[in-house]
Amino acid sequence: MDVFEAITSRRAIKHFDPAHRMNDAEVTRLIEAAMQSPTSFNIQHWRFVTILDPELRKELRALGNDQAQMTDASLLIVMTADVDAWKKEPQRYWKNAPP
Ligand SMILES: Cc1cc2nc3c(=O)[nH]c(=O)nc-3n(C[C@H](O)[C@H](O)[C@H](O)COP(=O)(O)O)c2cc1C
Known about the structure:
Layout: H1 3-9, H2 24-34, E1 46-50, H3 54-63, H4 69-72, E2 77-81
The structure holds flavin mononucleotide.
The site of flavin mononucleotide (FMN) has 4 residues, from loops.
């Protein structure tokens, strides 16, 4: 698949099979792919929080406009960020950059 086909055929999926389970290798592969996302100065200040507890997922669903995918998708990841990361020795982000 070329990049334009990937862009035009991509869709936001709304309905999931609640009985489907992903294995650890699949979850790791997805998170490792997400970690390829670019960040300013390669700061990589995202934090991926995987929500496993079904009761917690129900609570999040209630907070998220009762959207079924919050409990029914086989994986729920909350994306957070360390917004103070830039204050923590920012020089280290470019220490290996070519002059
Ligand atoms: C910032 C943002 C927030 C979104 N939030 C939700 C959401 O809370 N629930 C949901 O089902 N879809 C959400 N979507 C997906 C949009 O509904 C979807 O991208 C849009 O309808 C276009 O459909 P497509 O992505 O299949 O082309 C969100 C999309 C964006 C960009």
